[in-house]
Amino acid sequence: MRLLVLGFVCLFLGASASIGFADDAGPQSRAEGIYALPATPLNNAPDFETLSGNITLLVLFQPNCPWCELQFRTLEDFKQNRASWLQVAAVSRSGSLSALLRELDDYDIEFPAYQSSEELLRGLVFTPGTPCLYLIGPEGGLGQTACGRLSSDELTRFLMGTY
User: Given pLDDT bands bounded at 50, 70 and 90, which one contains residue 109?
Assistant: First the structure.
């Protein structure tokens, strides 16, 4: 039990320590205020700015992406079994509103999803592929990023800053 608690604390501190803010050079300085950028709520999601104040793991997805569905399922399992404290949200890379809603209905996910804007994609230092993961700090600063599907073990290392 003590090992489990220690692992949880290390996981939480690793995620908190891995987030860069405005004083950092490079991509982090271009992404301040992610939560203030426009995004259209999907699947009864709250307004995007309500995610601020917590560490958020954003997953970039698009319709007809088989890897995205696998990543969503892994994230749901990961949040439920390893990191219940983690706030997870999805942001679209592309797709019409109807296509995104249909895709989310097929995925049957519990976390909020959003249709992105050009401003949000620029703030995330957009990449052309999906899925991509972005660790966003409580104040909206962009931390680590990774593209491609990650397993639960890889997600743990990603959050700890060792991926």
Answer: confident
Give the global pTM: 0.77
Nearest residue to 154 via CA among 93, 90, 71, 56: 71
d(CA 112, CA 88): 7
Q: Determine contact, residues 103/63, Cβ cutoff 8 Å.
A: yes
Cα(20)–Cα(117) distance, integer angstroms: 23
Count Cβ atoms below 10 Å from residue 18 Cβ, excluding itself.
18
Backbone angles phi, psi at 7, to 5 degrees: -60, -40
Is the model more confident about 12 or about 85?
A: 85
- CA 140/CA 99 separation, integer angstroms: 28
Burial class (CB within 10 angstroms; exposed 0-12, middle 13-18, buried 19+) of 34: buried
Q: For residues 148 and 150, what is the distance between their CA atoms, to the nearest angstrom?
A: 6
Rounded CA separation 68/121 (Å): 17
- Strand (E) or helix (H) holding 118: helix 118-123
CA distance 134 to 28: 11
Q: What are phi and psi of 27, to 5 degrees?
A: -55, -30
Please, which residues bridge with residue 133 across strands? 59, 146
